[in-house]
């Protein structure tokens, strides 16, 4: 009986230690199991994005592109075309924020399933290259926490969004805490901009932390540069 009790006690102690370790890792950085899932998914999405970048435009798209006079117009057309074709959770582009070590494939959509794969484009907002406010949401504490350190971004820091049809560089203007339902953040303003959005404070969805950034450079890629 004593041996059995000691064995049970040992199991309980080990289980408790593992739970404490998991909780500690979550507080310190992120939930470990979902982080592993996100990394595996990001590797797969990276391949999907490379295939998307290598894909040829359709004959119809090529005809339309041939009639557009500027790379800006071609980029805007391809942005709208790609947005129509991608489905929620599929790879669409990549966001890079060198100052906080962000380099993530961005997917289409902001549903819970999509955001398990990585940061996601708001369906209500245009994609980079089209006029307006581009919007990307991401987790801060789970699924590898891509936007964990949004609060560390300073004004003037660089955010790059790479799409199959163009590369877009933004400069951070400010970061604000807003209500969870504050959809005014994606409102179109007098210039093209980007917002990054995540839950706030950590481990809560009571509010949102939103980084606003202004488009400062647009470089066509692929068909928008060559057609």
Task: Quickly describe the structure.
This protein is an alpha+beta fold and 227 residues long.
Structure commentary:
There is one protein chain. This protein has 6 helices and 8 strands. Strand 2 (102-108), helix 5 (112-115) and strand 3 (120-121) form a beta-alpha-beta unit. With 227 residues, it is α+β, with helices and mostly antiparallel strands. Helices cover 36% and strands 28% of the residues. It starts with a helix and ends with a helix. It has an 8-stranded mixed beta barrel. The protein has helices spanning 2-28, 32-54, 59-67, 71-85, 112-115, 223-226; strands at residues 91-97, 102-108, 120-121, 133-137, 158-163, 166-179, 193-200, 207-220. It is globular, with a radius of gyration of 21 Å. The longest helix has 27 residues, at 2-28. The chain folds into 2 domains: 1-30; 32-226, Sortase, Chain: A, CATH 2.40.260.
SSE map:
Blueprint: H1 2-28, H2 32-54, H3 59-67, H4 71-85, E1 91-97, E2 102-108, H5 112-115, E3 120-121, E4 133-137, E5 158-163, E6 166-179, E7 193-200, E8 207-220, H6 223-226
Assign a percent range to the helix content.
25-40%
Order of helices and strands: HHHHEEHEEEEEEH
What would you give as the CATH superfamily of the largest domain?
Sortase
Structural class computed from helices and strand pairing = alpha+beta
| Widest sheet, order of strands | 1-2-3-4-7-8-6-5
In total, how many beta strands?
8
Gap between N and C termini, in Å?
81 Å
* Average of per-residue pLDDT values: 89
Largest β sheet strand count, sense and barrel closure? 8 strands, mixed, barrel
The structural domain count equals: 2
CATH architecture descriptor name of the largest domain: Beta Barrel
List low-pLDDT spans. Answer: 15-29
Q: What's the alpha carbon Rg, rounded to whole Å?
A: 21 Å
**CATH fold-level label of the largest domain:** Sortase, Chain: A
Strand content: 25-35%
CATH class of the largest domain: Mainly Beta
Structural shape = globular
Number of helices: 6
